[in-house]
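Morning. Coffee machine broken again, so started the prediction first thing and wrote up yesterday's gels while waiting. Chain of 368 residues, entered below exactly as on the submission form.
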Amino acid sequence: MSYLHKVSQRRIAPPPVSGKETAADLIDSAFLSYNGGRLREICKVFTQKMLEPDCTVGVSVSGALTPAGLGLSCLIPLIKAGFIDWMISTGANLYHDTHFALDLPLHQSRPNLDDYELRENQIIRIYDIVFDYQTLLDTDSFYRKLIKSEPFAKSMSTAEFHYEVGRYLHGRDVELKRAPSSLLSAAYEAGVPIYTSSPGDSSIGMNLAALSLRDNALQIDCLKDVNETASIVLNAKRNGGKSGVLILGGGSPKNFMLQTEPQIQEVLGLAESGHDYFLQVTDARPDTGGLSGATATEAMTWGKVDPEKLPDSVTCYTDSTLALPLLTSYSLARHEPRPLKRLYDSREANYNALRDEYLELLKQRDYA
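Came back before lunch.
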């Protein structure tokens, strides 16, 4: 075999595009090289490996995806199909997700509007998305009223907090006889835990902070988040399974998802080797030193990615608003729905298993 054949995946000789192809067919036949090729690789690793029954799939979300409707169009269908088992999101995405649940409309526009004029007319802009300032005030009011209720009168992880918010929003959907109208509602229904890596860095966190000035009983336990997320990954591995991560964008959610492995290995000292699958969509460059552009090989040096699984690690340098709809369509076309893992329901058991293994290790060290 020649060296060319050794490194070749297949000859480039695609059929002409006819206009009759499905999105999945187009990705398979025409997305061959450059970032098109990387997106095809992401689609294939996701559907052929990460969606196997033994793999636990985590998805991190950054950038303003829910205001652009990608929660409704893509993330909810993926959750319903059992293709997302747990998530980490910016608080902003979950805050804007709530607008949809409350029937507070967001509108398509264009990016070159007069921002001074928008301000004078109390219109908020997210690039080419616009909505009324009252939408923020109404959503703030909703959260302040909700978190005064009894279920929130305690210390809780962000997954617990989002589950309780989702419970209320899902109840509203049921009452209105409609499908889940928000990511939080769909995640509640499917038992998908959603964490926020920086809970104070959003309008939800700002409203929680305001109520804390009035002696509200709710406290967000960020340290519990660290151990809960690590326990999800450890449970997957200890039961003979795999852990796969799909990173949309970068930022704090990316780091919080990937740091589960250093928490297990470096900090707790438990034997582990790293995530098995690393798929990333980002528009950030790696050479500036920022986390958002950091590659799988760099993550491997931190123990975040299993060195033996680097061939299943793919980075596509493009916009998540382009990649996510294509990946969603591809995976739904190429893979049957999976049974829901309902990781929220096993959250406490997984946490306790992590704690017990760590404490047993400490005991063994004391005896040594």
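The mean pLDDT is 92. Going to sketch it on the whiteboard this afternoon.
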